[in-house]
Write a structure and sequence with these properties.
This protein folds into 3 domains: 13-101 and 154-186, no CATH class; 199-334, Tetratricopeptide repeat domain (Serine Threonine Protein Phosphatase 5, Tetratricopeptide repeat), CATH 1.25.40; 351-551, no CATH class. It has 553 residues and is an alpha/beta fold. β6 and β7 (515-520) form a beta hairpin. The protein has helices at 13-29, 35-45, 49-60, 85-94, 106-109, 115-118, 132-141, 161-172, 180-186, 207-221, 223-228, 231-240, 249-268, 272-280, 287-297, 301-313, 318-334, 363-375, 386-394, 396-399, 428-436, 440-453, 469-478, 481-493, 495-498, 528-539; strands at residues 71-73, 98-100, 155-158, 351-356, 378-381, 505-508, 515-520, 544-551. The strands form 2 sheets. Strands 4-8-7-6-5 form a 5-stranded mixed beta sheet, sandwiched between helices. Strands 1-3-2 form a 3-stranded antiparallel beta sheet.
Length: 553
């Protein structure tokens, strides 16, 4: 949440955060770090503050990539908080954390310089209008001595960056985040829930685990190049993926996601056999869906239909079941093998069409005002915020309860498995108990308690700005416990997919009750996830309708 007053950070705030990250990892994972990684920590701790500041600055910046490490020209560096930058660099060179003027091929040195700086270095005159790639190619063909480019320059290469990657992985659980999370907290932009970070619940329990995750990220870095270079390159990269035997659910998810990406590109390239083979190694949707499509595309109708039946017998999520029902029927109909394949039910929700005068506001807000004026009632724009938010408040303590592998560091908005199929099963007993005790009193008590005591703290389900006391009071009073329980069960069953597609408005008629209203403007149609929610409402007796808006002429 935004801070009410401006916050000014110290000029070297980043150094405090960097030290805290290193110390956090060493205090919890010291036994899993390599000798080189522990030496990296010790060497950094022994540096003078200015040298530490310079190293963190360079480690955090995107320099010119090279085989020696990220490259920087020393005379282009300027940081007001570093008093004597050359001396700081000298100490880093002595500690082996920077390398001065590394021996590199000319092709890796040229990107350090601007076009205007490179033109005079050519042995033969080149036009000022020459493009950068042509200029570099011309200089390479002249076989100039790379050392000559260092004349009057000091080029620094950052060393030991790979050791910090391990620290980042252990702290964040991934290599996508950085120290920005601290800045968001320090600026008051985010408040994080406090949860214990016990050793026994830490995500990494062995060095082998760390190595497998590092290997995954190495493969991820090579993905774009492999996807561009065709089936052989894709298969070669797939063969390098880490094995996912064991109980590391996070690694399973990551490797599966990458496999699905590689297999999908093989499918696009019509390498269907190779794609099918990769999909077979994936445990999560949409692997079986893609295999069914491939089988039918290759003319193997029976295998495609068998896969659809397999999905329907044990769907991994609702979207997978909807696909199998629809694709299986269409395929069976075309192949004239309809035995056992009924036409999928298509729910038609109650619908009203209304003509309203056009205005500058969004059609949902115009519709809400129309409902209020036409019925003398209250109407709120909620879309995906109300039911998610009330669930987040009701299960707040369970959401942040330590589960093995769920929390890596103090700056998580959610447990690491929040958007995965493992989220509910890992907490099944606690969730089931909480849902079993749900009634009007327990729901209201927990929601209001957390609404008041947790205000502003980040929660993946709660959009604080969208939950007014008036809206909460109406919703908790008007919506029955049975409806809340049914809604919560569906959300928890597949939180990644089901947290979207909810109706735009909640309407509270003057005579009591409530109604969910999905608004569709001119030319807008129901999306599949919206259609599935409306079908769910019908099955559970939750009042709903679709409001089609046309503009008055």
């Amino acid at each position: 949440m935004p801070s009410p007053t401006p916050v000014e950070l110290a000029p070297d705030y980043y150094l405090s955060n960097f030290r805290a990250l290193l110390e956090f990892v060493v205090s919890r994972y010291d036994g899993l770090l390599s000798a080189e990684e522990r030496a990296f920590f010790t060497d950094f701790q022994a540096l003078a503050p200015d040298s530490q500041r310079l190293y963190v600055r360079l480690l955090s910046r995107k320099g010119v990539p090279s085989s020696a490490g990220a490259l920087f020209r020393q005379n282009k560096l300027a940081y007001t908080e570093i008093g004597d930058l050359p001396h700081a660099a000298e100490q880093l060179v002595a500690a082996g954390l920077l390398q001065r003027n590394p021996e590199l091929p000319l092709a890796e040195i040229l990107p350090l310089f601007t076009k205007a700086e490179l033109l005079p270095r050519s042995l033969s005159p080149l036009p000022q209008t020459i493009k950068r790639p042509e200029l570099e190619q011309a200089l390479l063909e002249q076989a100039l001595d790379p050392a000559g480019y260092y004349a009057g320059e000091t080029v620094l290469a950052v060393k030991a960056a790979e050791h910090f990657e391990t620290f980042k992985l252990c702290f964040f659980g991934n290599l996508n985040q950085d120290l920005t999370d601290w800045v968001l907290r320090d600026l008051g932009l985010y408040q994080y829930e406090r949860y214990p970070l016990d050793r026994e619940n830490l995500p990494f329990q062995s060095r082998a685990q760390i190595e497998q995750h590092l290997r995954y990220y190495d493969c991820l870095m090579q993905t774009d190049e492999a996807l561009d270079n065709g089936p052989e390159a894709i298969r070669a990269l797939a063969a390098q993926l880490p094995t996912t035997d064991g109980e590391d659910a996070t690694l399973h998810r990551r490797v599966d996601r990458l496999r699905l990406n590689l297999a999908r590109q093989l499918e696009r390239l019509d390498a269907l056999e190779a794609a099918d083979k990769l999909y077979r190694e994936c445990m999560r949707p949409p692997a079986r869906e893609r295999r069914a499509r491939i089988a039918v595309k290759r003319g193997d109708i029976d295998s495609g239909l068998a896969l659809c039946r397999e999905i329907l017998a044990a769907p991994l999520n609702e979207a997978e079941a909807v696909f199998a029902e629809s694709f299986g029927h269409r395929t069976a109909k075309r192949a004239k093998k309809l035995d056992g394949w009924a036409v999928p039910d298509r729910y038609l929700p109650p619908t009203e069409t209304v003509a309203l005068p056009p205005a500058d506001e969004r059609v949902e807000f115009i519709s809400a005002m129309w409902l209020e004026s036409a019925h003398g009632s209250e109407c709120f724009y909620v879309e995906n915020t109300l039911f998610n938010g009330v669930l987040g408040l009701y299960i707040w303590d369970l959401l942040f309860t330590p589960v093995p592998g769920a929390f890596f560091n103090p700056f998580q908005i959610a447990p690491s498995d929040f958007r995965t199929p493992d989220f509910y099963p890992s907490r099944r007993e606690a969730f089931e108990q909480r849902l079993a005790e749900l009634n009007g009193e327990t729901l209201a008590a927990r929601v209001w308690q957390h609404f008041e005591t947790k205000q502003g703290i980040a929660n993946p389900l709660v959009a604080w700005e969208a939950l007014s006391p008036a809206l909460l009071a109406h919703a908790l009073e008007r919506i029955s416990a049975d409806h809340w329980r049914a809604l919560f069960r569906r959300l928890l069953a597949d939180i990644s997919n089901h947290r979207n597609g909810l109706p735009d408005l909640i309407h509270f008629p003057a005579d009591g009750g409530y109604e969910l209203v999905e608004v569709k403007g001119p030319g807008d149609r129901l999306q599949q996830n919206q259609q599935r929610w409306l079908s769910f409402f019908a099955r559970h007796g939750i009042p709903h309708r679709v409001l089609h808006v046309e503009w008055q002429q």
